[in-house]
Amino acid sequence: MTAVPLQPPRRLIEFTLDGRETRVPEGSTILDACRAAGKDVPTLCEGDTLTPKNACRVCVVEVAGARTLAPACSRRAEAGMDVRTDTRRARHSRKIVLELLASSTDLSTTPRAAEWIKEYQAEPGRFGAGAARLNEAPKIDNDLYVRDYDKCIQCYKCVDACGEQWQNSFAISVAGRGFDARISTEHDAPLTDSACVFCGNCIEVCPTGALSFKSEFDMRDAGTWNESAQTETTTVCAYCGVGCNLTLHVQENEIVKVTSPHDNPVTHGNLCIKGRFGFQHVQQH
Amino acid sequence: MDLHFGDGKPTDQERAAVDALLGPASSPWEGADDRSETDLRWARGGRDARERRDQLLPGLHAINDRVGWISEGALDYLCRRLTIPPADAYGVATFYAMFAVAPRPARVVHVCTDLACAVRGSAALCADLEERLGAAGATEGDVTWQQSPCLGLCERAPAALVLQAGEPASAAGRAPSPLHSGPRKAAAEVVRRRTSAVVAPATAGTVASAATAPEAAPGEPPAAMAVPQAGRPDLTLLKRVGVVDPASLDDYRAHGGYAALRRAFGIGPAEVIREVTEAGLLGRGGAAFPTGRKWQATASQPDHPHYLVCNADESEPGTFKDRVVMEGDPYALVESMTIAGYAVGAHQGYLYIRGEYPRAVARLEHAIAQARSRGFLGENVLGHGYAFDIELRRGAGAYICGEETALFNSIEGYRGEPRSKPPFPVEKGLFGKPTAANNVETLINVLPVLTMGAEAYAAVGTGTSTGPKLFCVSGSVRRPGVYELPFGAALDELLELAGRPESIRAVLLGGAAGGFVRPDETDIPLTFEGTRAAGTTLGSGVVLVIDDSVELPRILLRIAEFFRDESCGQCVPCRIGTVRQEEALHRILDRRGAEAADDVALLREVGSAMKDASICGLGQTAWNAVESAIDRLGVYAAADPERSTT
Ligand code: SF4
Ligand code: SF4
Ligand code: SF4
Ligand code: FES
Ligand code: FES
C-alpha cells in the first residue's frame, strides 16, 4: 500500500519518523508512513482490506511523550509527532509478543513468523513445556474449508470480514474471553448449521493459515502441498456478470485454491462461494 | 444483513422474560407466531430493531434472571426481536461471567476468594463448602456454587452472594424514558425483584443455609455499618450515609439535597464547569484526570447528542465505596448526575452499575423513579426547562467493563472490549457521541463543590489534590470500612482510625492494579502526588492491610489469577501475558533467591511488554502489584539478613 493516494487530494502533515522529517497525507497511519519510507515493521492483525483491530501488538512503535507504545497499524500520524520504530522498548515488546504467540499457537503456516522470531531473537520455548497452549483440534465440518484454531492468533480479521466490514453474514464471532476466547459460531454449531454462506472471504484475510481450503488442508496432511511448485493465474470469474478477478493456484495441473487480488477496486479480494470454491468443474475436462 | 436462525424455540418462560422487557413481538419478522395480512407484504425489523441493539444486555439479563441460564432457543428469540445475528449475541453472552450458556441450576452461590476475603479466610470457607455443597461448579440439588472475584463487600469479608433465578415477584414495567434521544426508542427495563441474599461475613454454615433458602437468609446490615465514621459532623461526602432515609426523596431534601442543583441552575452550565475546574476536582476512578477539563471538552463538542455516563462498575478488588454511597445516599448520585448532565449539555445519562450489587441497583432504581415522578428528572427538571433522564444498566460480571470505552461497548450491546484511544470519549464515546464519563465518587464531589463554592472546596486537601477522599480499608484491621479524610492525611492516620493490627506485613494501595508499600512506609501522604512520589498509586482508594499471618506469594498468585480471568482477550500481551505471569508465580510459590531468579527475570520481561504494549489499563497495570512486591517487599528474595524487608 502506498502512502500517496491518487485522489482526492488530502492535506499533508509533517512529523518525524526515526529522526527524519516525513510528510504523509492526513489520515495516514504510522505504518503507511513506514511503508512509504521503506521501513519493515512486522504486522499480523493488520490487513490491507480491513480496518485493523490492533490486537496483536507486534507493530508497536515509540511515540515521544507517550506513556505506552502505539500500534503503528492504527495510530494516525499527527503533525509534530516524534516516532521511533526501532527502539529497545519497541523491539522488546515485539519480541515478547512473538514469544507469547509462538508459545501458545502453531505459527508454522504464518508467513514471515519464523523470520521475525529470528530477527527479534524470540525464544518461545523459555516459558517451559507446561506453558498453556490453545490445543484445539481442527474443525472439519464441511467439504470446502477447515478451521484449525490451534493456529489462530485471534486477530479478528475473519470476524470483521464476515461481519460488517465485508460479507455481512455475521456467521462467526469471538466467544468467551481472555485466554479462553475463541472464534466461534453461535453455540459452537457446525458451520453448515450457521449463517455461513461459504464465500471464503475469511480464508482470504486469515494471516496464519488457521482457515484454509479443505484441498490445502488435505494436501498438507498428506505432505503433498508444495507452494514453490504452484503457479498463479489471475483471470475473470465466469459464473456471473460482475466480473470478479480470480487467482487460480495450480499445482501439478490441479487448481488447489482460489484467491482474489486485494487491489481490485470493486471486490477487494472478496468472492462468493462459486468463484471461491466452484473450481471443480474446470478440472473435469 | 441476512439473519440465520436455528430451529431452537424459546420456552414460554423464556419468551415471557424477553417480552416483559421488549413488549410482545408484533410480527413474525421478530419472532411472533402469527402472521397478519400486512406481514405478507411488508418486512419489518431491520433498522428499527437494530437501533435497539443496546437492549441485548438487558435482554440477556432478563433470560438469565428468569431461568438461570441462556438456552439456544432463548438466545435465538432475543436475537430475532433485536435483529442481532446469533453468533454475535453468543459472543456477547459468553463474555460475561454472570451468564451461562449451558444448563445450570437456578440458584448460584458466588463465594469471593479475592484479596480481602483471602486475607480473611476464604480458602477455609471454600474447603468447608466443598464438604457441604460439593465441588465448585458441581450441581447439588438445585444449587451450584462457584468462586468469585471481589464482590465489593470487603469490609465484611469473607463474603458470598446467592443469586436465585425465577419469576419476578413484581413485573410492573416502568414507562420508557420519555426523552430518549439516542438510538433506543422504546423498551423499558422491568423492575426485578429477585430473591438474592448477601452473606457477609460468611461461614460455611450461613452460606449453606442461604443457599438452601435464600429468602430466609438474614437481611443485610444497613449501609452505614460500612462507615465507621458515620454520623460524624465533619464528614462531607459521607455525611448523609446512615443519617438519611435512602428511600425518601423528601428526607434527602431535608438533609440538604438538591441545593447544589438549584445553585447549578442559578449560575448556568458554563459557570458550573468553571467552579468544578477551579475547585481542582480530579477524577477519583484512578486516572486523576481534571473533571472540569473533561466536562469542558465534552460540552464544547459540536456533535450532538452529548451523553453523561456514570461509571458505577466498581470491580477493583478491595473497592466498595461506591456501593456504600449508592446504598446509603442514592439521591446524591441522582442529583450529581443531573448537574453533570446539565454542565456538559447531555439530556440522557446512563448509570452503569456492576451486576453483583443487587441492593445498590434496587436503591437507585427506586431513587430514579421517585425523582422522575416528582419532576427532579424528566422533560423539565425542577421547572428550569432542562430535560434530563437517567437509565440504569446492570453489568454482568466483567471487571474490564469499568474501563470507560469497554463500558460504552457493554451498554451498546457489544462485548465489553476496550476501544483504542484516540478518539477519546469526549469526542466519540457512547454511541459514537461526545460523552463525559465519571465514576460515582467523582460525581458526588460536585455537590460540595457547588454548595461550598470552588474556593472553600479547594482549601480542603493539598494544593494539587483538593477536597475530601474516600478510602476503602479492608484486610487485617479492626474496623474495616469506608473512610473519608481530606487529601493529604498520612496513611498512618487512616490506619489508626481503622485499627492498625499488631504487625503489618504490607499494605496494598490502589487495589490489584496498585502497588504494595512496606510497614515502614506508612507515613506516605495520601495524595495523588504523594503516592506517585513514593512510587505507588492511590488508584481507586483501596487500602488493603496484610498482617503477618498472610503469605504474600499467595496473594500475588491471586492477583495474577484475577487478571488472567478478567482479561478481555483482545490483545496478545495481556491475553497470553497474564497467563504466563500466573504460571511463573505458581512455579515460584515456595521459592526464594536463586531458585526464583529465572522466573522473576521472566516476569519482568513479560511485565514490561504488558505495560508498554497492551491496549488498555488492565494489561498495562496487571504487573504493577507483583512488581512492587518484588522490588519493595523483596518477596522472592532469599532470606537474607541484609534485606530488612523480607
Ligand atoms: S465463508 Fe464467508 S460467510 Fe462463511 S464464515 Fe467465512 S466470511 Fe463468513
Ligand atoms: S481464524 Fe485467522 S483470521 Fe480468524 S482470528 Fe484466527 S487468525 Fe485471525
Ligand atoms: S489489555 Fe487486556 S483487557 Fe485491555 S484490551 Fe488488551 S486484552 Fe483486553
Ligand atoms: S499489526 Fe498492528 S497491532 Fe497487529
Ligand atoms: S468482597 Fe471479597 S475481596 Fe472484596
- Would you count the extended β strands of chain A for me? 12
Beta-strand content bin of chain A: 15-25%
Helix content of chain A: 10-25%
User: In one word, what is the shape of chain A?
Assistant: globular
Number of helices of chain B: 26
Order of helices and strands of chain A: EEHEEEHHEHEEHEHEEEH
Alpha-beta content class of chain A? alpha+beta
What portion of residues of chain B is helical? 25-40%
User: How large is the count of helical segments of chain A?
Assistant: 7
Query: How far is the first residue's CA from the last residue's CA of chain B?
Result: 61 Å
Would you tell me the overall average pLDDT of chain A?
94
The neighbouring-strand order within the major sheet of chain A is 2-1-5-3-4
Rg of chain B is: 24 Å
In round numbers, the mean pLDDT of chain B is 91
Model description:
The complex is a heterodimer of chains A (285) and B (646). Chain A is globular and about 55 Å long. The longest helix of chain A is centred in the middle third of the chain and has 17 residues, at 88-104. The two termini of chain A are 39 Å apart. Chain A has 285 residues and is α+β, with helices and mostly antiparallel strands. Chain A has helices at residues 30-36, 88-104, 113-119, 157-162, 201-205, 214-222, 273-277, and strands at residues 12-17, 20-25, 60-63, 70-71, 82-84, 145-147, 173-175, 182-184, 211-213, 230-236, 245-251, 254-259. Helices cover 40% and strands 12% of the residues of chain B. Chain B is built from 26 helices and 14 strands. Chain B has a 5-stranded mixed sheet, with helices on one face. In chain B, strands 11-10-14-12-13 form a 5-stranded mixed sheet, sandwiched between helices. In chain B, strands 8-7-6-9 form a 4-stranded parallel sheet, sandwiched between helices. Classes of the chains: A alpha+beta (285), B alpha/beta (646). Chains A and B meet through helix 2 and strand 7 of A and helix 6, helix 22, helix 23 and helix 24 of B. One iron/sulfur cluster is lined by residues 161-162, 167, 169, 171-172, 196-202 of chain A.
